[in-house]
Amino acid sequence: MGLDRGSDLPLYQQVAAHLRNQILDGRLAAGTRLAGSRLLAAELGCSRAIVLTAFDLLYSEGYLRSVPRGGVEVAAIARPSGRGAPQPEAGTEGEWVSEAWRSVLDTGYEFDPASPFSPGTPDISEFPFDVWSRLLRQTWGNPASSACIDMPPLGWRPLREATAEYLGTVRGLLCQPDEVAITSASSGALNLCSRMLLNPGDEVWVEEPGFIEARWSLRAAGAKLVPVPVDDKGLIVAEGIRRAPRAKLAVVTPSHQFPLGIPMALERRQELLEWANRQGSWIIEDDYNSEFRHRGSMTASLKSLDRSGRVIYLGTFSKVMFPSLRIGYLVAGPRFIEAFGRGRARIDVHPAGTAQLALARFLRDGHLLRYLRRMRKVYADRQAAVLNAVERLMGADVEVMSQRAGLHLTVLFRPAMTARISDREVSRRSRGTGHFVQPLSQCYLGEPDRQGLVLGYGRLRAEEAFPHLSALAGLIGPAT
User: Fewest Cβ atoms closer than 10 Å to its Cβ: which of 67, 192, 240, 402?
Assistant: First the structure.
């Protein structure tokens, strides 16, 4: 063996590890006498003290024993035979991964956050990192001991307070800090809610088409997913009742349906709440990107209509600030929040605390509100540029869905376009070109009844819209 003097592992531990592995592999059988410490040290080019320290470590672990006249030999130990259960190998997950998780791992899904058409990805080049870094330095220059040692499972109290104020200002959602939990983005909240609320086999309504990543947490919890179609008024509640009247949970995006962008009509919201109240079911409202409204008045959240505590409201700062922040929030009744906190404490203790202190200041000092006001104009201009390019390049072939809010829009293929090429073929052609685009049909659980493309524009500057859309249109080919 050779000693690596550049390694962080001390030399005596390197010697011990080498001998230990030879013993466990059977290359040094029980009773084998080892070379003397001086000879071994000379062979390794190290001091005798290093070898003796390695021997001492292996003595204490039971791998070596002393023999008369100062010799050292390998002790008799029970070694793994290697004839037990086969070790997991790539491609054999079905033998050892749970059935629920296997359905998640086997889900075909393609996503490229670096693509200019990545839906929901904000433009981090516009974010005020100078302000953010200053707040990080200030809050962690001399932090409270509780922030370092005893961060609450529900999140830093000042951040819960600031989030409640933020939601009242930005979304018109009036809530108290005791109704707010800080989470690991909205996906972390959905994951824990799924595990807390659902038993294996429970039915869950999901929008069709819908947000694929939300389905992963539900499937991992053992839920039976029931796709409920969406029309121009949002989720068709009557169809959900027909398919699964006793579903335990419904997961919806009522303010800005993903991927179609349609807001849920008031009568549908009332139907959904009435069903949940009647059945004692739960509703999870994912209010992603509702801060970015481009036209029309603000759509009230479903949670603001809830009078029975059946709606659990999810949101995230990651999509409006920068994705790796991984901080979101959950709003629900105090009893649910208390149970959520106890459940969180038993799984991973609390959300990562490093950024929570700075985020509380970022909110309280008004930095996020100023940033949102500026970015609404930026993203509205980008959406307008994309719409103009789509009309010029694909106008006869596609229908553009609702454009009221968010960082993406969906274009539906007209029949002539669908006859010529599938959305999955367009997506396949876009791989590796720097213009990857998600196909709408990927968002269906069942057989897609519509095809189209999900076009993000958060990272697409207005002047870049036509060149990028032109390159995408070139992959599709001219109409025949």
Answer: 67
Structural domain including 63 reads 11-74
Q: Is 284 helix (H, G, I), strand (E, B) or coil?
A: strand
The tens digit of pLDDT for each residue in 424-480 reads 999 999 998 989 999 999 999 999 999 999 999 999 999 999 999 999 999 987 765
Alpha-carbon distance 290 to 113, whole Å?
20
- 465-476 vs 423-430: helix axis angle to the nearest 10? 120
Placement of tokens 């499937």 in the chain: 219
Give me the phi and psi of 474, to 5 degrees please. Answer: -65, -30
Query: What are the backbone angles phi and psi of residue 226, rounded to the nearest 5°?
Result: -115, 105
How many separate domains does the chain show? 3
- Let me know if residue 104 belongs to a domain: no
b/e map 441-475, b = 16+ CB within 10 Å: bbbbbeebebbbbbbbbbbbebebbbebbeebbeb
Tokens of 127: 């974010």
Spatial separation of the C-alpha atoms in residues 376 and 372, rounded to whole Å:
6
Note the pLDDT tens digit of each residue in 319-350.
999 999 999 999 999 999 999 999 999 988 88
Q: Which SS3 state, helix, strand or coil, does residue 299 take?
A: coil
| Residue 297 confidence (pLDDT) above 70 | no
> Domain check: are 240 and 206 in the same one?
yes
Identify whether residues 354 and 381 lie together within a single domain: no
Considering only 82-96, 223-237, 345-359, 368-382, which range has the smallest mean pLDDT? 82-96
Residues 153 and 31 in one domain: no
| Alpha carbon distance 45, 47 (integer Å) | 7
Which among 74, 92, 119 is the end of a domain? Answer: 74
Q: Would you state the pLDDT for residue 211?
A: 93
Segment 402-418 mean pLDDT: 91
Q: Rounded to the nearest 10 degrees, how much is the dihedral formed by the CA atoms of 4, 6, 10, 13? A: -20
What percent of the chain clears pLDDT 90, i.e. is strictly above it?
A: 65
The number of helices, as runs of H, and strands, as runs of E, in the chain is 17, 14
- Return d(Cα 378, Cα 316) in angstroms, integer: 20
Written as six digits, the tokens of 345 are 């404490």
